Amino acid sequence: MTTRAGFIALIGEPNAGKSTLTNRMVGAKVSIVTHKVQTTRARIRGVAMEGDSQLIFVDTPGLFQPRRRLDRAMVAAAWGGAADADIVVLLVEAHRGKTPGVDRILEGLAELPRGRRVALAINKIDRVKAEELLALSQELNEIHAFEKTFMISAERGYGVDDLREWLAAEVPEGPWLYPEDQIADLPMRMIAAEMTREKLTLRLHQELPYQLTVETEHWTEREDGTARIDQVIYVARDGHKGIVLGHKGETIKAISKAAREELTEFLGRKVHLFLQVKVRENWLEEAERYSEMGLDFKDGNS
């Protein structure tokens, strides 16, 4: 049996569908998915098996114009993931087309190491007509010589099998890099924190999703087979703490319940989840917070 294994970096603008595609490829939820931009912070690796090939998906943060230290660290992580990968897949939203953000990414692709293989995946194809898709594909391929172009809907699954089969045939020959049943290389502590952060992001809407972070402080395996997970939600201001807690603690209770239910389903056993909210005014400038998110603090330097 000839085995293959390789790293695939999914890049694109925020909300292009990278996390949805990672989860679809892996067949399980390993990446935070919300309708808010810039929700993926760490380079989450989802591991998928296709025949004798192991595909390791690097779900990078969305590429955008950075303004803050955290933004710069996220963009550096995204381009770092692309530079290190065996194959890069650029996701472009069909209905948005060649935006200024896509133009910047195309310029960045030209600066990747020579010989880096890049495919194009036009996502959300159910939102536009066929002639528009063909015109967009032609326009993008005239700017960059993509090895292959795929028309997909990550959310509905259209075209995803074709992309996965092509990737499986194209990654390098070699031994598998992870156990066959492993679906992500993130520590469970970080996956658990990401799940809680997703619930916060969904619940708080526009109020402060980028001004908070979640860390798993303690993970205790109990004798009865359940797990106790203690997490801290760091916010930047006192006023933010009140928003997270909500009236009589209703918001934090709802977030805790939703996160606990998802963690229980993901782990296949009962979870006791305890959340604390702490104010740390300068958490966006603390190296330790970046390490917990899988980012390099130094990458945030201007």
TrEMBL record:
Membrane topology field: Peripheral membrane protein
GO biological process, one term: ribosomal small subunit assembly
Sequence segments annotated as region (G2): 38-42
Binding site for GTP: 12-19, 59-63, 123-126
Region (G5) location: 152-154
Name under which the protein is recorded: GTPase Era
Main location per the UniProt record: cytoplasm
Region listing for G3, in residue ranges: 59-62
GO molecular function: GTP binding; GTPase activity; ribosomal small subunit binding; small ribosomal subunit rRNA binding
Family annotation (InterPro entries): G_ERA_dom, GTP-bd, GTPase_Era-like, KH_dom-like_a/b, KH_dom_type_2, KH_sf_prok-type, P-loop_NTPase, Small_GTP-bd
Cellular component terms (Gene Ontology): cytosol; plasma membrane
Annotated spans, G1: 12-19
Residues annotated as domain KH type-2: 204-281
Subcellular location: Cytoplasm; Cell membrane
Disulfide bond as UniProt keyword: no
Biological role stated in the UniProt entry: An essential GTPase that binds both GDP and GTP, with rapid nucleotide exchange. Plays a role in 16S rRNA processing and 30S ribosomal subunit biogenesis and possibly also in cell cycle regulation and energy metabolism.
